[in-house]
Write a structure and sequence with these properties.
By secondary structure, this protein is an alpha/beta fold. It contains 10 helices and 5 strands; from the N terminus they run βαβαβαβαβαααααα. Helix 6 packs antiparallel against helix 7.
C-alpha cells in the first residue's frame, strides 16, 4: 500500500482531486489544506511514500521552508510540486530532488517568473475559496488573448502592468479592465475570452496528480 499526502484545496478542490487519484488501487491518499511551516515534520510521522505540494500559505502563516522539504526528500519520500507554492519550491529545489510539474513550475524554473506574488491570492480560510485572481493566471490569459489577436502587444503590457501593481488581495479582472484604456468592444471580447480560458493553476494541480498516478503504474 502506497501512502500519499496532497496539500491542496485552493487551486484544486478536494473533491476534484479525489476523482483523479482515488481511482488507483493499492494507495491511501490523505488530502490536507494548504501547507505551512512545520506541517512536513508532522507529515513524516504518518510515514508517507509520496507528498504532493500544490497550495501553501504565503502571508497568513510562515511558508514551508526549503530545509523542511529537503529533510523529507532525504528521508526517502518523493516530493512533487506544482501550481502554486509547490511550483515555487520545486523550481528552487529541483536540482536537489524535488519533482516539478506543469506550466507554473516551468515559468519559475526558467526565470520568467521570480516572485511569490505571481501565485498569491486572498482566500476564505473556511471554504478555501479564492477571493482574488492570481497574477500568473491573468498573464497567461492576456498572453493567449494577444496571440489570438483580441488585444495588441501594447494592450497586453498595459493590462499586465496594472495587474502587477495591484496588491494581490484586490487583484481581479474587473478592476484591471476598469483601469485600462481598452475600448468597450475590446473589453467585451476579452471578457468572453477570459470566461472560456483555463485556470492554469488548476490545470497544473491536476497534472501533478496525474503524474503521481502515472508514476505508480
Amino acid at each position: 500500500m502506497t501512502k500519499i499526502i496532497i496539500y491542496t484545496g485552493l487551486s484544486l478542490p478536494f473533491s476534484e482531486a479525489k476523482d483523479i487519484l482515488d481511482s488507483c488501487d493499492d494507495i491511501e491518499v490523505v488530502y490536507k489544506r494548504p501547507i505551512k511551516r512545520g506541517d512536513l515534520n508532522l507529515a513524516l510521522k504518518e510515514n508517507p511514500d509520496i507528498i504532493g505540494i500544490i497550495d501553501g500559505v504565503f502571508h497568513q502563516n510562515s511558508a514551508v521552508g526549503h530545509k523542511e522539504i529537503l529533510k523529507v526528500i532525504k528521508s526517502g519520500v518523493k516530493v512533487y510540486g506544482a501550481s502554486s507554492m509547490g511550483a515555487l519550491r520545486a523550481s528552487e529545489l529541483d536540482s536537489l530532488g524535488m519533482i516539478g510539474v506543469g506550466y507554473v513550475y516551468e515559468q519559475y524554473a526558467s526565470g520568467k517568473v521570480d516572485s511569490d506574488d505571481d501565485v498569491a491570492v486572498m482566500l476564505d480560510s473556511d471554504s478555501l475559496e479564492a477571493l482574488s485572481e492570481p497574477l500568473i493566471n491573468m498573464n497567461y490569459v492576456f498572453e493567449n488573448a494577444m496571440c489570438e489577436n483580441i488585444i495588441t502587444t501594447q494592450e497586453k503590457e498595459e493590462l499586465s502592468t496594472i495587474a502587477k501593481k495591484t496588491y494581490y488581495p484586490k487583484r481581479n479582472y474587473a478592476q484591471t479592465l476598469a483601469e485600462s484604456g481598452l475600448d468597450n468592444k475590446t473589453k467585451d471580447q476579452l471578457i468572453d475570452f477570459i470566461r472560456q480560458s483555463k485556470d492554469i493553476k488548476k490545470e497544473d494541480a491536476k497534472q501533478l496528480l496525474k503524474q503521481i498516478r502515472d508514476d505508480l503504474l
